[in-house]
């Protein structure tokens, strides 16, 4: 069974704090810090793209894991919706800059908030079907490249960041179980990037529709995931959910009647990191030594509309 061994992370240097947004939009501080749960978010520097952030996260991973030989990496998947180029694929750029072997299988997946969970399933399937030993799953999405700074609906929410996850067929960490998936393309316009009047690609979001989608979809998906893994919801120790906003997750906790202590919310200093939000959360909880011996449910949901949930059983805390 494939195992999450370690996670490297990267955040850009530039910080956008709440004082700046309060001045820009006249927001109430309580709305930003209590309802959204965000105090600051990071923004990629001009010229800093998905490949730059991906490489930085992977280098952080290699620095933390001296036992991971770059020559041993046989699979590299990069999850991004904002690649540096239309072509080539971002993973090719990352493979070259990391000095991975030319025999490494590399490709991108264009998913957002569900991308990490989808990626785990793809990596697990390839490792086990092809007999591969080591893989990197990198999530890197500089959403600041498509956010209109004047958009009150998206500017406070999203931050830039990247994570690199080492997955192998054996070793200590989190054992990846069965994953379930869902898609509702009829809702694609609820979260979409398209040209504005000036031809600039801009993100727009129907926040209320996304909120209702989450509340109605995630509980059923959690139930499906439990059935697929042969467990009851009561067997889940931690719910590691996409960090959309404090309000959205708090409402989901109420809807599902979950113990808030089992649903960590940690987006205070990052904002919504899209596909990187779950690996950042895993890394944060692992640094507390709070994963070993626990069963976690991972669930990502958002743009597409797309969602995925899976079980990970941790026999040890991943290196983070």
Sheet with the most strands, sense and barrel status: 9 strands, mixed
Low-confidence stretches: none
Question: What is the CATH fold-level name of the largest domain?
Answer: Peroxisomal Thiolase, Chain A, domain 1
Output the radius of gyration.
18 Å
Mean of all residue-level pLDDT scores: 96
Topology:
Blueprint: E1 3-10, E2 14-17, H1 18-25, H2 29-35, E3 40-43, H3 50-64, E4 75-79, H4 90-98, E5 105-109, H5 115-130, E6 134-140, E7 162-168, E8 174-183, E9 191-195, E10 201-205, H6 207-229, E11 238-241, H7 246-256, H8 277-287, E12 294-302, E13 306-314
Parallel strand pairs: 4-5, 4-6, 11-12
Antiparallel strand pairs: 1-7, 1-8, 2-3, 6-7, 8-13, 9-10, 12-13
Helix pairs in contact: 3-4, 6-7
